[in-house]
Amino acid sequence: MKKTLMYILLITIILLLWEYGGSANNNVRMLISTPSLCYEYFLQNSNNLLVATCVTLLQSFLGLLTATVIAFFIMVLCFRFKPFFDIILPFLLTTQVIPLITLAPFFILWLGIGSSSKIAMSALISFYPIFLNFTTGYNSISKNIFNLLDIYNTNVFTRITKVYFPLSLPNIFTGLKLAATLSIVGSIIAEFSGSKIGLGRNLLMAAIRIEPELMVLSVFLSALLGGFLFGTIFMLEKNFGKWYVKDRQIQ
After folding, report:
1. How many C-alpha atoms does 34 have within 13 Å on its Cβ side?
2. H helices within the chain, ranges in order?
């Protein structure tokens, strides 16, 4: 209860200082506006802002889902054909040297200005944390478990579903939580390069039109989207990872 009151007090103080700074200084108002002006702008343009938020959320979610499916598919191939893992891992590490945000215009040219390019960019940025953490989880499995599976001649399907996935679950969810916020970033970056609607387009138009209210609201809504996706993954982890989440809480 005390922490909640402290947070409320802190937020109130920040809002009051923000309001005072924006009202007393024109430069501050041109940069970050004021809470009251942002509230008025939201009331006047709530439909457009909410539609843009929903579009960005959908693109980010589909990008995250696509990245998860691809990462899991590649890992299953690696489980089935172990030499494939040694071949693909150095290649994936090399691709991280490329600044991925510079590929946004390429996706626009390739897939068009619609949602497909935004989903592709979101998936590209989200993929690596999921795959890397899944790999880390797999490599952290004890060698004794692998030896036991070999002794009983366990088939690949049973190994994957009963051993590899469950024991890698903590790392998988760590990767998903990282990727959840990155998926929002990827979608917004792609929207910068070309989009009819979305929070990224709003941020771009706010800079062109010098609309600090639109910029602040778009940043705030982007943060809410990131928190929403992160919270969703967190709740899924509490549901599917009860066996290790409880141990963490006890510690």
Report:
1. 15
2. 2-24, 26-32, 35-44, 46-80, 82-95, 104-111, 115-139, 143-151, 156-159, 165-193, 199-209, 212-240, 242-250
How far, CA to CA in Å, does 205 sit from each of 196, 211, 221, 226? 11, 8, 16, 21
Q: What is the pLDDT of residues 143-195, one digit of tens each?
A: 888 888 888 888 888 888 888 888 889 999 999 999 999 999 999 988 888 88
Using a 10 angstrom Cβ sphere, with 0-12 exposed, 13-18 middle and 19 or more buried, the burial of residue 74 is: buried
Average pLDDT along the chain: 86
Q: What pLDDT score does 224 carry?
A: 94
Over residues 18-29, mean pLDDT: 84
How far is it, in rounded angstroms, from Cα 140 to Cα 201? Answer: 42
- Residues 63-84: pLDDT tens digits? 999 999 999 999 888 888 878 8
Taking the C-alpha atoms of residue 99 and residue 95, their distance in angstroms, rounded to an integer, is: 9
- Cβ(63)–Cβ(116) under 8 Å? no
HSE toward the beta carbon, residue 23, CA cutoff 13 A? 9
User: What CATH number was assigned to the domain covering residues 36-250?
Assistant: 1.10.3720.10
How many residues make up the chain in this entry?
Answer: 251
Q: How far is CA 128 from the centre of its chain?
A: 12
List the structure tokens of 218.
């778009």
pLDDT band at 57 (very low <50, low <70, confident <90, very high): very high
Any idea where the domains of the chain sit in the sequence? 36-250
